[in-house]
Amino acid sequence: MPVPVTHLASHRAAPWLNRLMGLILLALITACANKPPVPVPAGITQRPLVILISIDGMRPDDLQRGVTPTLSRMAVNGVRAESMIPSFPTKTFPNHYTLVTGLRPDHHGVVDNTMEDAQMPGQRFSLSNAAAVTDRRWWDQAEPVWVTAEQHKVRTATMFWPGAEAAIHGVRPTRYASFDGKVSANARTDTVLSWLDGGNAEGFGFVTLYFDDVDHAGHEQGPGSPMVIEALAKVDRAVGRLLDGLAARKVPANIVVVSDHGMAPVGNTRVLRLDQMAPASSYRVVSSGTFAGLEPTPGQAAVLEQGLLQARDHVECWRKADIPKRFNFGQNARVPSYFCLAEPGWTLATNEQSAQRVKGGAHGYDHQAPDMRATFIASGPAFKNGVVLPPFDNVDVYPLLMQLIGVKPLPSDGRLEPLLPALR
Ligand code: AMP
Ligand code: ZN
Ligand code: ZN
């Protein structure tokens, strides 16, 4: 039989004392009430498992396309947000790390999917660079849910999540998988269920599950396209498979479904060329697309500024210190010296070839842009039924997760208040 794990109380009083007090309370309750077995009091046994599911690139209106019966049912029986406001930049790695730290990208240090850091000369962070993705130095400016949870004896498991393969602050999830985009949605679900065999015998308190099918389809064909519809249906079935598997194993769970950002239609008729904005010899491109991060060529900063900082339609460029406050972006040393942001639907290309290739969908734009809004759905014993929350910031997901797993949150940019109306 699994040994009950004390969560919230475990860092306040000795576990044996909690257990003893819980047992006495349990005996009293059982003696007083002539009813079916009473659930073990809070503080002595494990709380319901918390499963954080990310459907990368899922827009809030994707829930209304009629192909997501499982997610729609979860929203009706639980909670959904009209939309969730992502953090800037609206890219995958920055926002996934925000969701599990409650910090804006400028504060957690994963400021883009592609990064450089003067402290690590010659190294470049990118999604496809496995050595970088698993290198804790890129992640160590913050502490994600699973690290704090493990330090408080709450076991965690990650079926993919940006950062989960690095030993952040020296700690890894109890179970995790090395990222492999080829693993199907169902196979990811089945791995999580295999970790929960024996009715969560390992006593996990927090598990992540990540799906990228909708993001891939959105990039390929654009939002609302046949490919997106198909991907939504596939991911919805995988979530249904998870719910069935949890029911079969009698594992109670609070499930929080999020996306990291939305998706906007783009095309090669709406492209701005960086090399036509400033002489190509005056800069080096760190990142380009929906936004561009540039470093000046030594001695060429004035030339670069003269071209880049003039007013243009469909794009705004700043010195990093001048990025408007509402983006909460530009303080971190990893933000490039010059930053340009395209208007939603427009693309910043490095040359003619890359301009021609633009098609389908993209994200990375202003976090307030309607097309960048993200998804939030939650259901389980902790959540009320049928609540629709007004839009809130994705930094607020972190205090919610910590509340659900029963571990004190670290200081963050998020607040639980906007989510309180959702909780029982
Ligand atoms: P993007 O759309 O460029 O912001 O990035 C999304 C892509 O990141 C997805 O298509 C995934 O294939 C990839 N990705 C997601 N999680 C990871 C991870 N943990 N490690 C490496 N790549 C990942
Ligand atoms: Zn994404
Ligand atoms: Zn994407």
Concise account of the structure shown:
The chain is 29% helix and 18% strand.
Structure explained in plain terms:
The chain has 14 helices and 20 strands. By secondary structure, the protein is α/β, with parallel strands linked by helices. The protein folds into 2 domains: 272 residues, 3-Layer(aba) Sandwich (Alkaline Phosphatase, subunit A), CATH 3.40.720.10; 88 residues, Gyrase A, domain 2 (2-Layer Sandwich), CATH 3.30.1360. It is globular, with a radius of gyration of 23 Å. Strands 7-6-8-1-9-18-2-19 form an 8-stranded mixed beta sheet, sandwiched between helices. Strands 12-13-15-14 form a 4-stranded antiparallel beta sheet. It binds adenosine monophosphate and zinc ion (2 copies). The site of adenosine monophosphate has 13 residues, from α9.
List keywords for this structure.
about 425 residues, Alkaline Phosphatase, subunit A, eight-stranded mixed β-sheet, four-stranded antiparallel β-sheet, 14 helices, disordered N terminus, binds adenosine monophosphate, binds zinc ion
Give the SSE map:
Blueprint: H1 15-32, E1 49-55, H2 69-77, E2 79-81, E3 84-85, H3 92-101, H4 105-108, E4 115-116, E5 124-125, H5 130-133, H6 145-151, E6 155-159, E7 175-176, H7 185-195, H8 197-200, E8 204-211, H9 213-221, H10 226-248, E9 253-258, E10 264-265, E11 271-273, H11 274-277, E12 283-287, E13 291-296, H12 301-308, E14 315-319, E15 338-342, E16 347-349, H13 352-356, E17 361-362, E18 376-379, E19 387-389, E20 392-393, H14 397-405
Parallel strand pairs: 1-8, 1-9, 2-19, 3-20, 6-7, 6-8, 11-16
Antiparallel strand pairs: 2-18, 4-5, 9-18, 10-17, 12-13, 13-15, 14-15
The chain binds adenosine monophosphate and zinc ion (2 copies).
One zinc ion binds next to loops.
